[in-house]
Amino acid sequence: MKKHFLLLTLCLVAITQAFAYTTVTVQDSISTNTHWTCNNQYLIKGWVYVTDGATLTIDAGTIIKGDHDSKGALIVERGAKIYANGTETAPIIMTSNETPGNRNYGDWGGLMICGKANVNWNGNDHIVEGGPRSHYGGTNDADNSGSLTYVRIEFGGIPLTPNNEINGLTLCGVGSGTTIDHVQVSYSGDDSYEWFGGAVNAKHLISYKCWDDDFDNDNGWQGKVQFGIILRDPNIGDLSGSKGFESDSYQSGTDTLRLTKPVFSNITAVGPLVNQTTTQYADNIRAGVHIRRGSAMTLVNSILGAWPCAVLLDEAAVAYTTTSGNIGTDELQFRHNIIAGTGTQAGFPRDILYVKDGARSLTAITANADTTNTITPTPAAQFAPFAGPWDFLTSATNGNKVYSGNFQNNVGLVNPFGSAGNPNFAPLPTSPVCYNSNVAHPFNPMNPINPDTSNNYANYNMPNVAPDFTNNKASDAWFDHVNYVGAIPGTQISADDWSKKAWVEWNPQDANYDYVCPLGVTNVNNYVETAHAYPNPASQNAMITYNTIADGNVQVAIVDVTGKVVANLFNGTQAKGEHNFNVDLHNFAEGIYVVTVKTNNSVKTLKLSVIK
């Protein structure tokens, strides 16, 4: 009896501690360095600005709630920084302050970050959409606005008026010195993610059941994204037309010098068509990919499944230069992708459509693509037959695979539509992502891709649909050169699926956030603030320098373009502050290397060119 009483007492103590927190209301401006810890919860009321020169640090496991009534939003202004670094088991959660079951799209304004990187607005400066005072843009593509890792943003995003919106995560002129990795945006009231210019890169992004576009990019953004998941709610679509990707370069008030040309690789984008011929979805959901207004967005090594229209190429008015011309210059690439389950309600699968002057960008579900044969500068034949530029999609050199039938039957993911609220985007063992139908040459998903057919296929290792990291814009060392298309590997090992880890939440409407500090979380957020390599290029010696803000474990290494570690510079505990390593390059071959500086909360990567 005493043992049972003691156990009950301990449980009550644990429950009391879990609910024993202070709600800190945050309003107006954060103008000095500020640290939010996970033993409090933070309520954002109205527009809260982190101002120029100030740094907001948020510890792992911290819960931030946006006020519904005032439509609270957190805005990191140009020259300010945010370091929000959660962990796999203790993510930072930004969510609605409504109670479970009462949360909804647009409960609050979401997170906005403004930086000093290049944009294509005239004067390289613009005020953000949605009403806040903040400006963005500049001339430093390497600008550092901080770090977001293992962060969830839920029920943010407000469409105030057409083309005047706040999104779940809005990135305005953010530079490549900023780290974004493992972020989930769910139930955004507008776009999940929108990039307005800049050069920031990101990995491991999830867009879950947003209202408008999942990955929207504009104004000369030239960053990279690898590993992303899109899952639509089939019943939700915006009046402007909802798409998985929407990309624009130019509009009134911009120059025509800086292209929007991001590179997306390893995305799994699942649309609303559970059944290929169904009409049971919001008809405002238009396309998986919509590229328009002179954009040169690239998509490679990815899966587009179950969209009313898979790819919509939209030739802009002359003032916005040419979208189709970016195909001819190879700025716009669509390679090594799977398209499957495209809708057939109009009598043919709309795998790719071409429309002119934006006149029918909202009607991609109808059979009225342009038939003009006078498009320049690309060859007229590229846009015939009527259903679109098939050479662009089906040329063998581009490596795309189009399946005309049902998405799930042909691509074979475990549970891509999320039945029972538990989506699973991993390929099944017989999926073309990880299976070779030629039984004489089976694919081993544990080994790298190898197209070598010599010596009776002794080293050959290829699935039915293979990725490519050589013949496209995903060839540089920033991209992980994995052996699969789509977001999730086909190893059948659950630990390899980054979307099934504890930081992800597929039911935020009913989640209990009435707690603080998950078990084992400490309030030390050690991150790498800056890192540099110089001279660069280097021939004989290079200096690696970086700065950390707290004591903690640090690993510093140099890897070659294949991912092989060629030098371990440090692995241990370091005091906070600046650290320097002189690297002898005499034994390094000429080429490109990547320097990684890693703590428990962050990773910085640097390219180092060695010349001889």
Summarize the structure.
The protein has 612 residues and is mostly beta strands.
Describe this structure in words.
This protein is 6% helix and 35% strand. The strands form six sheets. It has a 26-stranded parallel sheet that branches. The protein has a four-stranded antiparallel sheet with strand order 36-35-38-39, with no helix packed on it. Strand 38 and strand 39 form a beta hairpin. It folds into three domains: 22-211; 236-411 and 423-505, no CATH class; 528-610, Sandwich (Immunoglobulin-like), CATH 2.60.40. The chain is globular, with a radius of gyration of 24 Å.
Tally the helices.
5
Estimated helix fraction = under 10%
Which stretches of 5+ consecutive residues score pLDDT under 50?
A: 1-19, 359-389
Q: Radius of gyration over alpha carbons?
A: 24 Å
Q: Report the strand count.
A: 39
The main sheet comes to: 26 strands, parallel
- Helix/strand-derived category reads mainly beta
Give the integer mean of the pLDDT values.
Answer: 88
Entry keywords:
612 residues; mainly beta; Immunoglobulin-like; 3 domains; 26-stranded parallel sheet; 39 strands
SSE layout and pairing:
Elements: H1 2-19, E1 22-30, E2 34-36, E3 40-50, E4 55-58, E5 63-66, E6 73-76, E7 81-85, E8 92-96, E9 110-114, E10 126-127, E11 135-136, E12 146-154, E13 158-161, E14 164-166, E15 169-172, E16 179-186, E17 193-196, E18 202-208, E19 215-218, E20 224-231, E21 242-247, E22 263-270, E23 285-291, E24 298-300, E25 303-305, E26 311-315, H2 325-328, E27 334-335, E28 338-340, E29 352-356, H3 390-394, E30 401-403, H4 407-411, E31 413-415, E32 424-427, H5 454-457, E33 528-534, E34 541-548, E35 552-560, E36 565-574, E37 577-584, E38 591-598, E39 603-610
Parallel strand pairs: 1-3, 2-4, 3-5, 3-6, 4-7, 5-8, 6-9, 7-12, 8-12, 9-15, 12-16, 15-17, 16-18, 17-19, 18-20, 19-21, 20-22, 21-23, 22-24, 22-25, 23-26, 24-27, 25-28, 26-29, 28-30
Antiparallel strand pairs: 10-11, 13-14, 31-32, 33-34, 34-37, 35-36, 35-38, 38-39
